[in-house]
Amino acid sequence: MRGPEKLLKSENNWETHMGGWFAGERVVYRGQDLHVDLKDMSWMELYVYGITDRRFDERQLKILNSIWTNTSYPEPRIWNNRVAALAGTARSTATLSLGAAVSVSEASIYGHRPNIRAIDFFWRAKRLLDQGHNLHAVVRGEIDKFRGIFGYGRPITRIDERIPHLMCLVEELGCAQGYFLKLAFEVEKILIEDRLRLHMNITGLDAALTADMGFSAREHHLFMTTCFLAGMPPCFIDAAEKDEGSLFPLHCGRIAYHGVAQRDWSR
């Protein structure tokens, strides 16, 4: 159905299985009563239930929670945290600060887009391996096509300090035998042996762990959308409590300018 008939069908009417608010009565959340059936859920449990329509056990929820806590750095030099801090130094509101900082987390190189690309690679690799392809050939094909694999390599340092801590929890919980987790480390081994020096970063590990829980690329992306959030309020507060406009000021002499020389302006 095309044209105005399709719009008329939705006028004052929205068909959904996700839920709804019955004013003064109840709230339905994916077919469950939010205040009765889901009242004992933790926030993390509710969040991933809303994304996936699936329940996760206690071990999985601990891993998902750790993915977030391990990625929330209160460091104002980090690109998205800097936005939160700039909002504080400009005396903006907390809501605008966090909203803007979360928005710019959708970065192409080191933000949420690599999260999609990383888990997408793992799912594509599995399909190729199931068809009988060799993993080394799959890795080389990805490198030749995209000049890299999202989830491997880091611009500042080859070592990702988050991985040992997250893996310690994963092993402690007995969840280190997942298909995609093993695949992630096999890919890393190939990249290192081929002298590409691309060690796995936290994006690759996070994608492997959620893929082992059955997350699709879109589900993983939605889950990771707020993974930096807990590091942002400290940056906003810190900047808001200091002198206005004092966040990382630059002296004019530090700017490497090679344009037109200083000149006089006439009316």
Walk me through what this model shows.
By secondary structure, the protein is mainly α. Among the domains are: about 20-55, no CATH class; about 110-225, Cytochrome p450-Terp, domain 2 (Orthogonal Bundle), CATH 1.10.230. Helix content is about 50%, strand content about 5%. It has twelve helices and three strands. The chain has a three-stranded antiparallel beta sheet, with no helix packed on it. β1 (about 20) and β2 (about 25-30) form a beta hairpin. α6 (about 110-130) packs antiparallel against α7 (about 135-145). The longest helix is centred in the middle third of the chain and has 19 residues, at about 110-130. The protein is globular, with a radius of gyration of 23 Å. The mean pLDDT is about 95.
